[in-house]
Write a structure and sequence with these properties.
CATH architecture: 4-Layer Sandwich
Number of strands: 13
Mean pLDDT: 92
Protein name: Serine/threonine protein phosphatase
GO molecular function: hydrolase activity
Distance between the termini: 12 Å
Strand order of the largest sheet: 5-6-7-10-12-11
Strand content: 15-25%
Low-confidence stretches: none
Number of helices: 5
Pfam family, one: Metallophos
Organism: Anaerotruncus massiliensis
Radius of gyration: 17 Å
CATH superfamily: Metallo-dependent phosphatases
Structural class: alpha/beta
Largest sheet: 6 strands, mixed
CATH class: Alpha Beta
CATH topology: Purple Acid Phosphatase, chain A, domain 2
Order of helices and strands: EHEHEHEEEHEEEHEEEE
């Protein structure tokens, strides 16, 4: 089957924070569903690298999770800077199980195998212009990324990394994250977080031997992008 990815869905079915007010986001929930159903089939995997729901808690995000559950495929969720509902892996998976969300799981200090690749990653970190660089956060994210890639390497499959924050953006670089990717020979990295006019400075191509791809929902016009396929023909 196939692996797709799309980030930054910013679902807000009950949390009162719809994105339709922003240019390019008009009718975005319907557009997500239409594009998803036109491409993804049962047995496929879709990686969602952060900012999936505006819900402030697991209960607050339930309607958004149920929307995803109703769509075809297995969904792998990573943490974004706006995923306030995020909790420990055990608590999230217990919540998913209790509410019949059987196609959802989170990626957190682990890896997931799908269609001949090992999906790994973390939130990542990149300081914004004018903001202080937080060493504590970046060190923690590097550890999480290392743990995830180490699990991926045990599978013998190619580790394909998904991050919320871009390791490289314009002339800014998160050297610690980039060093982890290079240390482990990662060849592909997908990321989100960047929107609207900011996309013009996003790296969407090769950088120091790594192929980076921006997959924010609005950047992709809410159409999931293919990562890997094992289909014939």
């Amino acid at each position: 089957m196939a692996v797709y990815t799309i980030g930054d869905l910013h679902l807000s079915l009950t949390s009162g924070h719809p994105m339709d007010v922003f240019p390019g986001w008009e009718n975005y929930v319907a557009r997500i569903e239409r594009a998803w159903r036109a491409k993804v089939v049962e047995g496929d995997t879709v990686v969602l690298p952060g900012d999936t729901s505006w819900g402030m808690s697991l209960e607050g995000a339930l309607a958004d999770f149920q929307f995803l559950e109703a769509l075809p495929g297995r969904k792998i969720l990573l943490k974004g800077n706006h995923d306030y509902w995020w909790s420990t892996r055990s608590k999230v998976h217990a919540f998913f199980s209790a509410h019949g969300l059987n196609t959802l799981e989170i990626l957190h200090n682990n890896c997931v195998t799908a269609d001949g690749i090992a999906v790994c990653g973390s939130r990542g970190w990149l300081f914004e212009t004018g903001e202080a660089f937080d060493d504590k956060i970046i060190n923690r994210e590097c550890i999480r990324l290392e743990l995830s890639i180490a699990e991926a390497e045990k599978t013998g499959l190619e580790p394909v990394v998904f991050l919320h924050y871009p390791p490289v953006y314009g002339e800014s670089v998160s050297p610690q994250i980039l060093d982890v990717l290079k240390k482990h020979g990662v060849r592909r990295c997908y990321y989100g977080h960047i929107h609207a006019e900011g996309c013009r400075w996003a790296i969407d191509g090769s950088y120091e031997g790594i192929r980076f791809r921006l997959v924010s929902g609005d950047y992709l016009k809410f159409d999931p992008v293919l990562v890997e396929t094992g289909r014939e023909g």
